[in-house]
Amino acid sequence: MKASSSLKSPHILLMALSIFSIACCILLMKSSKPTGGNDGTVASQYSNSKSNELVQVLRRASMEDGTVILTTIFDEAWTRPGSVLGLFLKSFQIGQGTKRLLNHLVIVTLGSQAFQNCNCLHPHCFQLRPFGSRKGPLALDNLVIQRNTNNLLLQVLDLGYSFIFTEADVMWLRTPIVHIHPSYEITIPCNLHSEDSQNRSNKPGRGLFYVKSNAVSIELFKYRKVWGTLYPNSHVKSLCEALKEQQDVIEMLGVRIQYLNATYFGGFCQGDSREIRQVYTLQANCCDNVEDKVHDLKLVLEDWINFRAQSFNISLGKRAPTKCIA
Length: 326
Known about the structure:
Oligomer: single chain
Pfam families: Nucleotid_trans
Strand content: 5-15%
Low-confidence stretches: 1-22, 24-46, 133-138, 196-202
Shape: globular
InterPro entries: At1g28695/At4g15970-like, Nucl-diP-sugar_transferase
Number of helices: 9
Keywords: Membrane, Transmembrane, Transmembrane helix
CATH topology of the domain at 39-262: Spore Coat Polysaccharide Biosynthesis Protein SpsA, Chain A
Protein name: Nucleotide-diphospho-sugar transferase domain-containing protein
Structural class: alpha/beta
Organism: Morus notabilis
């Protein structure tokens, strides 16, 4: 009996710690100011003028149902002529059913030069003021990027806007909107069978997801924000990874999730073998530098243009990646 108790005690301790962490997050969320739908009370770090500017950009870009498409760019090099941003926009222009979506795309940049570059290419740009940042250069590590993105998305939800978030290195070959069902809080292509997410060639996410603005989704993103505050040194996780690992929180909040077939939303990391006629979006992840990323993204768009030029849309493979290798 003693041996049995000693074996169970570590599991009991881990369970107790998990429950305690969740309870702390809930208490911190409840102690925050209640959301007012369109009051924008979440991000107190924003000045009133900056918050109003975001509201104006979202209002101009939103669809009839209050949905916007959002992307964030934290590397100024991505916004330079001929770089990632230009290719990202080109994919919308030549994609199937995607050109009209450019009117609903909001590009969020960090830094004045990136903002200026964005304005030269697109009408709906917003310059992000880093949350909680001090004067001086901002360290562009993954933790800073993830936190700033999460805080921005929380503010957008709190303002009453639903969104499709996409990384800027995702090529939109076809519109994924046809797969989004409004009854779910979250729609995401996610590889639920990925066991080793630490291996970058096995990342479960696809750089794309939809979130519906309502009380449930706002509480989820509040939880993610508080969790990052309580555990600042924890491993940075994508939304896909977080959803997989925090099922207890998902069930507690009652979050309804629609998982899309991840094989139709490809990425270089995953080494997807789908033909280009079957892929909706394709992300240039697993690239060591921006030059390699741009090179392989150009191959993707060239292959897509060649495919669309065929009279009968015959089967064509994908050349990329050649420099971005998992």
